[in-house]
Amino acid sequence: MHGTWAGTGNGGGGGGGGASGLRGFAKLANRPPPNQQTGCRDPCAEIPLCRAIVTLILGGLLLIAGIVITALHYSGQLQGDDTGTVGPVLLCLGFMFCLLGIVWIPILRRKEARRQGTDFYEAQAERVRLEAARQKELAETERLHGGNPIV
């Protein structure tokens, strides 16, 4: 595990935190995403809600499987010790994944809306910077040519 987590394999020692531990985390955080390392495209990268929807569907499938197995066990059609625990476990996992997907969708929507707003403000700031640079250049040209700007 060389250099994968803060404090392991990067000279930071263990558990002390501080700047040395943060260097290892910075190395991990600045690593390019896996799809850039392998050259493969991530199909979920282009659809903002893809992972949340997949999580919601997986949770629904686990929930349905848990309901079916639990109902079959308690109706007496499934015999065995393991079927009595598998059904409720699948119910819990399905409910957990459904809840995660349901909560994740509004978070991603809010994040997307905030990112679009940020893009707008960045474009506005760039326009203001360009206009200020143009005005500065015109003023410098006027100063150099004695009040006769060359446009």
From TrEMBL:
One GO term describing the cellular component: membrane
InterPro entries tied to this protein: PIRT
Domain of life: Eukaryota
Keywords: Membrane, Transmembrane, Transmembrane helix
Pfam families (alphabetical): PIRT
Membrane topology: Multi-pass membrane protein
Keyword Repeat annotated: no
UniProt subcellular location: Membrane
Residues passing through the membrane, by range: 53-74, 86-107
Protein name: Uncharacterized protein LOC118429515
Species assigned in the record: Branchiostoma floridae (Florida lancelet)
